[in-house]
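Note to self: keep these together.
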Amino acid sequence: MPPIPQAAEAPDEILTTRRIAAPRALVFQAFTSPEHVGAWWGPDGFTTITSEMHVAPGGTWRFVMRGPDGKDWPNLVTYVEVVAPERLVYDHGDGAGPPQFHVVVTFEEDDGGTFLAMRAKFKDAAARQYVAENFKAVEGGRQTVARLAAYVATLLDQARPE
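Structure:
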């Protein structure tokens, strides 16, 4: 199945897309529920510990990503817009300063599955380049949505009658 066309990535953006073989409502739930998000969020080798998650405009998600080296990375997401199950808009930072980037996530129905697009917009192309080079953000985004797809597949397998 070819991907749903998306606008091109701008110089100050990182666009991560993936078709996930699961219903949109389930993918959205896995993305927005504290009982699910810790099982898949982050690049390979990372774990995510959520201390607070309130998915609503003005609500926050506070979490720590622990790297494979044991280093903790505090994160703070502040939700701007929530339209279940089709769209999330949020600002993402570390909680110590202003948000580092703005994210729009869309969940589009796609022939029984979901086409997910995460568009992270930085203050400028240099900021985008910095996170891409120093934090491997492009590959990290790909790994994160691959982990989401794998996790949702396990949820579907558990729901199938034997």
